[in-house]
Write a structure and sequence with these properties.
By secondary structure, the chain is an all-alpha fold. It has four helices and no strands. Helix 1 runs antiparallel to helix 2, helix 1 packs antiparallel against helix 4 and helix 3 runs antiparallel to helix 4. The longest helix is centred in the C-terminal third of the chain and has 29 residues. The radius of gyration is 15 Å and the shape is elongated.
Length: 117
């Protein structure tokens, strides 16, 4: 995979993880949100970690597998986001922004997989 700007996607995945952490810090501290936070932060952080791994892959199969994991983790992150208990329009808006970011990342990783094939 040859990127003209190799670090743009890395930065985008870091921003997604940071935005996820920021979001959970503002959510109401309920029992449900506490459990969701653990899952969501792990999956959101895993997107970028696996993308970095894909750039250091051992071959095309390894790279494809890592990008597929990125796509899977983005889907999982979006799932957890939809389950959070939020109060007020501000939190709902933040959640929608994150869902939008996850959709964008999903499209990017899907396109990369198609390009690698």
């Amino acid at each position: 995979m040859t990127d003209t700007k190799p670090y743009d996607l890395e930065e985008k995945t870091i921003k997604f993880a940071k935005d996820a952490i920021s979001f959970v810090g503002t959510c109401p501290k309920t029992l449900v949100n506490t459990e969701l936070t653990k899952q969501f932060v792990r999956s959101a952080g895993s997107v970028g970690a696996n993308y970095i791994e894909s750039r250091e892959s051992l071959g095309q199969k390894d790279q494809t597998m890592r990008i597929r994991i990125c796509r899977k983790e983005v889907k999982e992150s979006r799932y957890w986001l939809q389950l959070f208990e939020v109060t007020g329009q501000v939190l709902e808006d933040k959640r929608n922004v994150l869902i939008g970011e996850s959709s964008e990342l999903l499209k990017i990783f899907t396109a990369i997989i198609e390009k690698i094939k």
